[in-house]
Specification:
This protein has 13 helices and eleven strands. The chain is α/β, with parallel strands linked by helices. It has two domains: about 140 residues, Glycogen Phosphorylase B (Rossmann fold, 3-Layer(aba) Sandwich); about 180 residues, Glycogen Phosphorylase B (Rossmann fold).
Length: about 350
């Protein structure tokens, strides 16, 4: 790599995973580029998540953590690059070990672990401020003199992905003569999932109102997506597991709105400019992961048992799952109607 003058920022931003978290660093990357247009910005992430930032014009280079690559090997790659600013935007055991293996001017951001635990276990809100995670990341870059601009994350798409999804939607007959709405019923943790029966009723309402539906998600969501999409005379189709991250983003960009739980797909939609209807159950706004866009409506219930976890879990701790069960398809449809309008 060419050497960089010490007067010009040579920034490494580390965020290993996952979909939403990687996209939420992009407001910081944008701010650094605008403040230091001559600087060099490198993002270090797992290879699987590199497509989220590899077409971002604010980024000069993406370092991919390869499957099986050891931390000493990664540390050696970081040490020789001459970075002037090392931003730990993950603050995990792995990133802290990397900091030890590649010493330098590292800076992190507040995760408020104690406040989060008190809110979950004692239902006491001790957060010093309710600040979205994309804005918390800026604490790691204080010396770069950057501030949040309040604009959404950015997910830049390559032309190949755009063409691939356009061809698929045309072949499926979706979104040409009728507005297209995306839904994402999957989630990594069961307590973040809205019931399948609710999704089916919601899609029925959307299709009956003269709109088409595409069901988005990854390969792990394919079964539930097929169930949600089935029937309705071909006006709803599943794209779950058919595309990579970039092409999934391209599908979402074609939609007039997305309905999703607290998942990475929600942040993908916000990052391509699609309005979001977000269904929140076990997690809450204080954690910092509400959709970071003005074009979002969050549906949630004021229950004494919320929040019950920071990321969701395999089952409701109280056994009733009221936070998601009692979000009705009618209320979600009305939010969709408002977003599309």
């Amino acid at each position: 790599m060419a050497s960089t003058s010490p007067l010009v920022p040579n920034v490494l931003a580390v965020r290993f995973s996952s979909i939403g978290d990687v996209l939420l660093i992009t407001p910081l990357l944008r701010a650094i580029r605008r403040r230091h247009p001559e600087g060099r910005i490198t993002v270090l992430t797992k290879a699987a998540y590199a497509p989220l930032v590899e077409d971002n014009p604010h980024v000069n280079e993406v370092i991919r953590l390869r499957p099986g690559e050891s931390l000493p090997e990664l540390g050696a790659r970081v040490r020789v690059a001459g970075y002037t600013h090392l931003l730990d935007l993950h603050d995990s055991l792995r990133s802290r070990l990397l900091r030890a293996l590649a010493p330098g001017p590292w800076h992190g951001y507040p995760k408020y672990r104690a406040a989060r635990a008190l809110l979950i276990l004692g239902k006491r809100d001790c957060y010093p401020v309710h600040q979205p995670v994309p804005e918390r990341y800026f604490a790691a870059a204080r010396s770069l003199e950057v501030r949040p601009d309040g604009e959404p994350p950015e997910f830049y798409l390559g032309e190949t992905a755009v063409r691939e999804t356009a061809a698929w939607l045309e072949a499926a007959g979706l979104g040409a003569a009728r507005p297209l709405v995306a839904v994402a019923p999957g989630a990594a943790h069961a307590t973040k999932r809205w019931p399948v029966e609710h999704w089916r009723l919601l899609v029925d309402r959307i299709v009956a109102a003269g709109m088409d539906v595409v069901v988005a998600g990854g390969a792990a969501d394919a079964d539930i997506a097929d169930t949600v999409a089935a029937g309705r005379g071909g006006r709803s189709r599943s794209a779950a597991g058919l595309f990579g991250l970039q092409a999934t983003g391209a599908v979402l960009r074609r939609a007039k709105a997305l309905v999703s739980g607290d998942t990475g797909v929600m942040h993908m939609a916000a990052s391509v400019g699609t309005p979001v209807v977000a269904l929140f159950g076990p997690t809450v706004e204080a954690f910092g992961f509400f959709p970071y866009t003005r074009r979002a409506e969050v549906l949630q219930l004021d229950l004494a048992c919320r929040p019950c976890s920071s990321q969701g879990g395999p089952a409701c701790p109280l056994g009733h799952h009221h936070c998601m069960l009692h979000l009705t398809p009618d209320s979600v449809y009305e939010a969709v109607r408002r977003s599309v309008a």
